[in-house]
Fold each of these.
Amino acid sequence: MTSSIQKNLASKNAEYASKFTKGNLALPPAKHYLILTCMDARIDPAAAFGIDLGDAHVIRNAGGSARDALRSIIISQQLLGTKEIVLIKHTGCGMLTFSNDDAHSLVKKNLGPSAAAEIATLDFLPFTNLDNAIKGDVDYLKRSAAVPGDVVISGWAYEVQTGTARQIV
Amino acid sequence: MTSSIQKNLASKNAEYASKFTKGNLALPPAKHYLILTCMDARIDPAAAFGIDLGDAHVIRNAGGSARDALRSIIISQQLLGTKEIVLIKHTGCGMLTFSNDDAHSLVKKNLGPSAAAEIATLDFLPFTNLDNAIKGDVDYLKRSAAVPGDVVISGWAYEVQTGTARQIV
């Protein structure tokens, strides 16, 4: 069975591929940086943050969490040569709306005890203040022994209401 | 100090924000699905996979790993109502080029013993065959008790040389 979402992907992709001209880009990002941001549906990193195809790694997870992204960041830096991290969290983030206890209770209620047991030790990494979360994640990356000391790291807040990115740190 | 990458972001974002008209989108994805793909610089998910702003969560990590993304997937489904997963890995992926041992050795060599100790238990989640990795991750998600049984899951291979997405499962 093909879902309407799969059909949309196939038809939009066929259109994209028919006009595709950038098949010779190198594996390592040309501008040697990575963007770490949230999975939020209201963010289009390429358009909003001016990333041309081939220029940067883009890591996205719930909340734009640096801890969650550490594996990818190490691979990006040690195997593919990126030297700068741009961390962008955003206003109206879902991670501001629940606690770890809320999420674990919801999984138990909706999915049952075996699901709850499977993720018993999972930290959902919610946060309560946007600017503090940005500063905290930049600090975490600066303190991590797995991130070289000369990597440039900045932290930004993106406003989903206006499309504006504001540098915090 | 402002880097050239930060300056580029600020100027491109100012242009984006000046034309921004979609400030009223809801937090939950309008089309109730999530895309999970790789952080690779050669992938622009919105353009290549036909995602309009506000329609879908986009999770990206090194390799488009389902295991690595589980926290984000649970949040997407249980707190923000998504019902379908589209997993897209790609040709020429960096994850095909090294082993866990290679990555741990590189961290120790480049960053020293304290970095190696900090990430001693980290699984870098490399893989050796693209189609098998796609099938394996779809299977992992279908077996996970934390992913509801009625969630629609498909797996795709994206060709960075041609811009074409091919459904595998």
Amino acid sequence: MTDIIYIQPLTAASFAPFGDVIEASGHPDRMINAGMCRRFDDCAQLSFADGRAGISVFDAKVRKLPMTLDLMERHPDGSQAFLPMTQNPFLVVVAPDEDGIPGRPVAFETQPGQGVNYHRNVWHGVLAPLYEPGLFAVVDRVGAGANLEEHRFAHDITIMK
Amino acid sequence: MTDIIYIQPLTAASFAPFGDVIEASGHPDRMINAGMCRRFDDCAQLSFADGRAGISVFDAKVRKLPMTLDLMERHPDGSQAFLPMTQNPFLVVVAPDEDGIPGRPVAFETQPGQGVNYHRNVWHGVLAPLYEPGLFAVVDRVGAGANLEEHRFAHDITIMK
């Protein structure tokens, strides 16, 4: 049996159960720099069990659609934000937790100018840029321990448009 | 008298007195996602006197060159990282502190894939994208208080290539 998941556009409302969409949307919280800059404040719920926040850079190979989803992961000790350093859309796959394993995945494609923050311990697919270069700044926990749980699916799941 | 500052390319070495260049440079610290992703760990010295790290979004108007630098600012209570959500180069102006005011400014232009982190209390110019859209994710301190010191120059400073 192949399970097919269709990709939907990413919106803050549809992504809310899993995390935050980081984008310049709606009214800015403040105008700064003498009116030259719109500031949207504090767009992501950062949460770290211990350790501290750090900024890393991920350079990931592009994924082709349709894509087989064989693995999901989660980070029990911290949230993880992916901030694209390009205007390229990328694929965001998340799932609700069902008794310690991922339930049915949900797939989103970002628009230019959108980043995401996975809330702590939310199941998600690995970083999946759809276009070169797959370059991201990542804000996540820096600290001791693996902070990683993985789940391999027993059946094939296909992600497509 | 007009003082002219010429723009130089941004490198980690030349920027080191002021902060960190956030980029996928050199050997990755780790390969993750079954070899599909290069991870460059913990690229920025985040430092907050109090409060906590947050992710905000800045959408700034483009600056034209040559640019007059009339104002610099610094944040006594925290570092501030600018992560471009585009591949557009932007202008980075910093200055050493000299008895509580900015010394002679230094100007850099980023390359695609480069972000910067201003160390805590380092004098810098306001966000100056050179191309539309001027969209950045910003990792800085979220907390009480102004956390802002400004300095207006008594003479004109021109930034140019």
